Each structure stands twice: as C-alpha cells, then as structure tokens.
C-alpha cells in the first residue's frame, strides 16, 4: 500500500459511520523534520502505531535510533516473512497461553494465522516483510549489560569532530549535559552548573582538553581532578576555590565508580559513534534500539544524556537538508523532558527540538502520561498523534499543549474527537495538513510480542544476525560541517599564549587591579559566528582577548508620601577609553547589569589580557570619577511623576503620559458610570409616573370616543324617526302625525347638541394627550442632556494631568559597583593583523 515516498500508517476513520474506511492514510516523512509527539494510554494502540512508523522508516531506507525504556521496541526485530507458526513459537508467552487454556504450539499457530490475515486485510504480506528484512540492519544495544551489544561510553569524552572555535556555546552546553549526567550517576546531589564546585571543575577540565583538540579519557579525568592543568578557576586559585582535600574525595568517588565490577561493561563494546550506529561501513542504513529497561534511574539519565549529546554533535557535522535524514525515537519520555524539573537530558533534547530540523533529523517523542511532558518545550512539534487518554486531566493538558504548538486548532472540535476515540484510533494533527484527521492504525509487520526481557535479547539479536560492528573509520559525509560550524580547520588549534603575547602585546597573566576597586568579568555571551556577522569580520578565530574598562552602576531611590511613591532605578555606564576632563556620563549609559551574577563570573582559563591603561590605575582619578558619577546622578536623576488630582491618581515611574491618561480615562469612566446610573434612576421614576398618566389619558380618550359614537347613533336614529312621522302625517292627513313630527324635531335638536358636546370632550382629551407626549419627549431629551454633561465633565477631568519633578536625596543614591570590568573579544586573523570583535552584549 501507499506510494514510494510516503509512510502508510493506516486508514481514514469515518466519524459518521464510526468505522475505519478503506482509504489509506499516507504521511510525508519530510514532515517528521518538524518532530512528532505521540501519546495514548495503555491499550490505546500507541505501541503498534509507533512500531508501524519505524517500520515505514525502515522500508524507505531511513536510519533510526530508538530509546526503549520498557522493552516494547525490541519487537522491531520480530518480522517473519514466511509467517510460519514455528517463527512465532519462541516468542509466545507461555503464561498467556496457559491462561487461555492452550499449548504454546496451538497459540503459535493461531497467532501466525491471525498475523497473516491481519496483514492481508491491509494489503500487506510477504513482499513487505521481505523488504523490511533487507532494507536495514537491526541491532539491540544494551548499555551497562552484555545481554545485547554493549556500549562503551568512554567515547563521549572524546574531543568532538566539530572545531571548538566558533562552536563554543554549543560544545559548552554539551559539556554541561555530560558533566551533570556523570555527577548524577556517581551520586553527587548538588550539580547546579553555576553553583556546584564539582560541576565547574570537571566542566573546565573537559573544556580545556576539547578546546585544544584533545581527548580526555575517564582515567585522565580522574587524575586531573586531583591535579588540574590550570592554576586558577575564575578569580581564585584552584586550591582556594576547591581545596586539594575536597578534590581528592571527588577523585576517589569517580575512581571507585570506575573500578567497580559493574561499571566495567560500560568500558567495552560499541562506542557512541552515531555515524556507525546509523550506517554500516558501506553506507546502508541501520535501525539501532537502545534497551535500557534494566538500568537504574540515574544510569538511564546518564546514558540518555550521553546518547542525545552524541547525536547532536554528529548532527552538526552534517549538511543542511529539508528531507528526513534520520529518525530519533524515544518510546516513553516521561521524566526526561518534564514541565518543571531540569534533568540533564532536558537541555540537550530542547536544543535538538529547536535545531535538528535544519539537519534533517526528526525527533519522535512518545508517552502515556501527557501531564508529565513540557508541552511548551514541544511547541516546535509539527505532528501530534493522540490516542485514547486515561483521564480528563490528561486530555486537558494535552489540549493545552496541542493548541499552543499548532495554532488555529479548534479546541472544542478536537476535544470532541478525543472524547470518542476507540482502540487503535488516533487523531493526527499535522501542521502541514489542512485539518486534524482520525485514522485507524494498520496491522504491524512485526509480531507484537509485548515487552521482552533482558534474557531474551541475545536470541533476539541472533534472529537478525546483529553483533557489535568492527571499529573502523566510518564515512562521515566528507566531514560535512554546517555553515554555522565551519571555521577553518586551523582554528581548532588555538594560538599559543606565548605566541599571542609576543606578537600582539597581550599577556596570559591578568594585570592587577588597584586595591579597593571592584573587578568583574563580562561573559562571552555572543557566539563567534554571530559576533563575526555583527562586525562584518571574516577569517578564523585565533583566541579570546580580555580588555579592561570602567564599569559603574548605582541605584537611585525615590520616596514621596504625597505621591505614595517608593521606587528605584539603576543607572549603568561603561567607559572603555580614557576621557580627558569631565566625563559626560549620559554618553556612556548601557543597560542595567545583574551585579550578583556579574560578580559570580570567574576569570576564564587560558585567556589573554590586554595591558591596564594608566587612567585605570590612578586611584585618585578614579575616586574623583566615582564622586562625579554620584553627583551626576543626583543632578540629573530627577523623576517626573504624572498625577491627576481630581481622580487622586499617580502614574507609576516610567509610565508614559498616553498610558497614564488611558488609565485616568478608565477611572473617570467608573466614576461617571455611578453618576449616569443615578440619572437613570432619577429619570426612571419620572418616566414611570408620566407613562401612567399617558395610559390613563388613553383610557379617557377611548371612553369619550365611545360616548361620541353613541350620541351620533342616537342622533341619526331620532332624525329618521321624525322624518317618518312627518311623511305619514302628510300622506294620512292626520294632525297627530304632524304634531308628533314637530315634537320629534325638538328631540332631534337635543340629540345633535349632545353629540357636539361629546365631540368637544374628545378633542379636549386628545389635546391633553398631546401635552403629555410633549412632556415625555422633553423628559427624554433632558435625560440625554444630563448624561452628556456628566460624560463631558469626566472626560475633561481625565485629561487634566499634572507633571511633578521629584529629585532624589543624596542619601538615597547607592553605588553598587565601581571598578574594572574585563570585556571579552574574539581575535580574528585578518592577513598579518589580528582584529578584535566584541564577544559580549552591550
């Protein structure tokens, strides 16, 4: 099934019919360069999906490294092209067969038949199994054990293939991860890279070796702990920073660990040479499974950190690509990328999540427990595969991470889809696709025997003929170093200190600082490649030079009861060259410095220093400069405060006038709302009373109009009667008829008069109604006028802002630092000259 390029991972699931369709789900492997997260509870089918993913990578010839903490991934070696019962029989769980009341042979036959049918249902069979068997080499590695192919971790201390110059930041991060893992393995508890003496010492030992292109064996490391190849750590002598007695105890701790029989297996076997782990000598791909179920927690953390650090180093020697070069899969990452804690594995995995895409390395991270993953850290993941979850907490946590990583996701729709997932049904959110999709996973080519134990690993490797590869110089893509990591090879060997001192006037001995002055080191926070880019410099790095300058920083406090003000600000100035006469301090202002961290920075090892200029050794002159610096802060340090007296509001220090007026408008609107509410209440009562009068008037009009209608009817009837009597009297010649007509005429006149009076009353009532309606209109207009007046009043109040200048008292100005700062510069070889470019942030 599928095509030549895409992964065939299953079939589309129809939510309306509630079943899997026959339409295949195909996935572009290049999408894995943006990484993937796979999660689902036990029984969701997560393991089967992940194994299918790795099978597809193998079928496409894509190498992979898999970390197997539970033993599930060992099933990747159980592919049987002939699908014979005898193939399955050695891997059938006897206890499972017994529980079902079957012999192992019967269950093997049933399993073989079931696997054959399952594969056939998905268009798979012998052809794909044969291809899987021949496409890649499979090997199960067992670090810390000889049951599989053992791993020699000593190679992790070797000097990396990428040059030190231009990659200092990357390699220092690698060192920090390795040292943290090593110290955790031997039982050191305080391993903060910025506070732990042990961590700082060993990190400096590795850095000293690597920066000189030297490999440091573990035995060498133990000896150098006792006798470091440098005299100082930071500003202190090594013995002052880490006394010899304490170093001897650390050395003994490391030596005991190395000498223990259980550690000897860590010193033999395949080195962590990622090129050899991913590819055979002829360049064909390999799938390497690192089984770590037998290791302790500290051993697991140590090995995982070492492995990912080695992968990262290898990755940076490769050319950039948009296709999937290699897959790195972690079957259960819980504890290695947590949302709160910071184990050594977390740092290197985070870096790879951010940077591996450029090198075509795809990370796949799987877990049963979404709450134990740092989804903010996984914001770079482009594919999320989600199976049935155990709790609502898991679902909500995962939805948070998914909506954060894949913007534009309809949380409600995804929530609904997740709530209805069944076994082997997954929601796939791919940022490269238009919308999330539900799929049913395909049948695995490999037999899913469940987690295998360490005792089964030898037979498993024998099944595929796996063994430790012969050590040889593996092809390394012609040493393809990325553009970011490609200074000239000669840059790997830094200029000797003696040569640098002789040719440029620099010295390896840091010049003394006048007594009483502070002395700090600005860290080299800018990588060489970035510094060269900013300075438009070209050429290899040939050293790191520290130049002295004057750094001054003070704190100004502002106190005012009338303005309820208790605030402070810091002012820092950096003067790099001598200034004749009075210093215009505002010309040298830099961003505020973290004095505590700055003072914690130590003098770098093997650095070169520029000479101390005379003006920075003149104590009298420096004393005058410090006084002048404080006086300048007093003279020019007035703080402008914005206030609104009517609203009794004061702006926070540094708040712009526009922002303060906006705040005043909000406050004024709140006050105005109270007055508007009162107007509403006052007019509501008047409006209600007037409405009541209008309703009564409407009833009066209706009553008067009814009376008018009755009068007019009587008038008409009476008139008709009179006319009739007259006609009868005339025609009959009877006087009585004529008399009656005369009497009726008089009555008709009365009826007419009464109708006119009723009509007059109706007209009067309507006039009264018109007057009431006019009162209503006037009432509405008055209300609107009153409200407009209130709004206008408070709008003007909000704009009524005053500015007040508050000067600090001299006693409220405190100098935090005044002294020498050593500024790091990279040395770039430009012909016969050396050019210095800043390695620090201003």
TrEMBL record:
Segments forming domain Helicase HerA central: 25-77
Alphabetical UniProt keywords: Coiled coil
Gene3D superfamilies for this protein: P-loop containing nucleotide triphosphate hydrolases
Keyword Coiled coil on entry: yes
Comp. bias intervals (Low complexity): 477-503
A Pfam short name: DUF87
SUPFAM superfamilies: P-loop containing nucleoside triphosphate hydrolases (SSF52540)
InterPro entries listed in its UniProt record: HerA_central, P-loop_NTPase, T4SS_component
Top-level division of the source organism's lineage: Bacteria
Coiled coil: 755-789
Disordered: region residues: 474-509
UniProt protein name: Helicase HerA central domain-containing protein
Annotated organism of origin: Leptolinea tardivitalis
């Amino acid at each position: 099934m599928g095509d030549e390029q895409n992964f065939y991972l299953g079939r589309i699931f129809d939510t309306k019919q509630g079943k899997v369709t026959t339409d295949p789900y195909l996935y572009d492997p290049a999408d894995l360069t943006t990484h993937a997260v796979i999660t689902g509870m036990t029984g969701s089918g997560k393991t089967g999906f992940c194994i299918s993913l790795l099978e597809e990578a193998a079928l496409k010839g894509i190498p992979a490294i898999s970390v197997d903490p539970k033993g599930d991934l060992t099933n990747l070696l159980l592919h049987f092209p002939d699908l014979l019962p005898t193939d399955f029989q050695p891997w059938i769980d006897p206890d499972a067969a017994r529980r079902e009341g079957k012999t192992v042979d019967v269950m093997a036959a049933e399993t073989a038949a079931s696997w054959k049918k399952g594969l056939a249902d998905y268009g798979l069979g012998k052809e794909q199994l044969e291809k899987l068997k021949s496409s890649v080499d499979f090997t199960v590695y067992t670090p810390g054990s000889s049951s599989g192919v053992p791993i020699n971790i000593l190679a992790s201390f070797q000097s990396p293939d990428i040059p030190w110059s231009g990659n200092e930041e990357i390699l220092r991060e690698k060192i920090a991860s390795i040292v943290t893992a090593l110290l955790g393995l031997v039982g050191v508890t305080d391993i903060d890279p910025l506070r732990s003496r042990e961590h700082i010492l060993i990190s400096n030992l590795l850095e000293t070796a690597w920066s000189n292109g030297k490999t440091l064996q573990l035995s060498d490391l133990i000896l150098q702990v006792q006798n470091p190849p440098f005299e100082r750590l930071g500003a202190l002598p090594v013995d002052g920073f880490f006394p010899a007695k304490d170093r001897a105890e650390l050395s003994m701790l490391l030596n005991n660990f190395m000498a223990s029989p259980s550690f000897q297996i860590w010193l033999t076997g395949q080195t962590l040479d990622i090129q050899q782990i991913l590819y055979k000598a002829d360049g064909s791909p390999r799938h390497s499974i690192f089984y770590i179920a037998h290791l302790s927690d500290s051993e697991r953390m140590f090995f995982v950190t070492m492995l990912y650090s080695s992968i990262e180093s290898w990755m940076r020697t490769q050319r950039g690509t948009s296709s999937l070069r290699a897959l790195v899969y972690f079957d259960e990452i819980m504890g290695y990328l947590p949302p709160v804690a910071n184990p050594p594995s977390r740092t290197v995995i985070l870096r790879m999540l951010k940077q591996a895409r450029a090198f075509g390395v795809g990370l796949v991270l799987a877990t049963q427990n979404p709450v134990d993953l740092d989804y903010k850290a996984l914001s770079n993941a482009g594919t999320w595969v989600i199976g049935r979850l155990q709790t609502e907490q898991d679902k909500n946590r995962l939805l948070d991470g998914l909506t954060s990583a894949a913007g534009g996701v309809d949380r409600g729709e995804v929530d609904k889809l997740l709530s209805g997932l069944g076994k082997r049904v997954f929601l796939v959110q791919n940022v490269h696709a238009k919308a999330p999709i539900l799929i049913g996973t395909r049948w695995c080519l490999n037999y899913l025997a469940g987690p295998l134990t360490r005792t089964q690993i030898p037979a498993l490797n024998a099944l595929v003929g796996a063994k430790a590869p012969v050590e040889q110089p593996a092809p390394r893509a012609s040493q393809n170093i990325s553009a970011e990591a490609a200074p000239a090879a000669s840059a790997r060997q830094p200029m000797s200190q003696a040569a640098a001192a002789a040719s440029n006037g620099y010295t390896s001995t840091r010049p003394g600082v006048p007594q009483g002055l502070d002395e700090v080191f600005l860290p080299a926070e800018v990588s060489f490649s970035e510094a060269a880019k900013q300075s438009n410099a070209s050429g290899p790095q040939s050293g790191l030079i520290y130049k002295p300058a004057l750094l001054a920083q003070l704190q100004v406090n502002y106190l005012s009861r009338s303005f309820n003000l208790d605030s402070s600000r810091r002012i820092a100035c950096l003067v790099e060259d001598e200034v004749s006469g009075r210093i215009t301090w505002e010309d040298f202002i830099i961003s505020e410095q973290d004095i505590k961290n700055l003072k914690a920075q130590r003098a770098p090892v093997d650095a070169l220093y520029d000479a101390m200029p005379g003006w920075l050794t003149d104590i009298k002159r420096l004393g005058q400069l410090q006084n002048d610096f404080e006086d300048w802060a007093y003279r020019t340090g007035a703080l402008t405060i914005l206030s609104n007296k009517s609203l009794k509001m004061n702006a926070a220090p540094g708040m712009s006038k526009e922002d303060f007026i906006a705040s005043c408008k909000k406050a004024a609107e709140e006050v105005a709302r109270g007055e508007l509410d009162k107007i509403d209440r006052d007019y509501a009562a008047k409006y209600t009373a007037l409405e009541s009068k209008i309703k009564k008037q409407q009833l009066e009009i209706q009553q008067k109009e009814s009376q008018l209608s009755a009068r007019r009817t009587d008038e008409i009837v009476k008139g008709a009667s009179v006319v009739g009597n007259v006609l009868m009297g005339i025609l009959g010649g009877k006087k009585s008829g004529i008399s009656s007509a005369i009497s009726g005429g008089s009555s008709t006149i009365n009826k007419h008069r009464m109708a006119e009076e009723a009509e007059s009353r109706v007209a009067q009532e309507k006039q009264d109604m018109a007057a009431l309606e006019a009162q209503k209109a006037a009432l509405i207009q008055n209300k609107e006028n009153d409200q407009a007046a209130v709004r206008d009043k408070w709008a003007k109040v909000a704009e009524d802002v005053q500015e007040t200048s508050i000067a600090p008292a001299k006693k409220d100005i405190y100098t935090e630092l005044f002294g020498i700062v050593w500024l790091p510069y990279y040395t770039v070889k430009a012909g016969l000259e050396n050019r210095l470019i800043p390695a620090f942030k201003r």
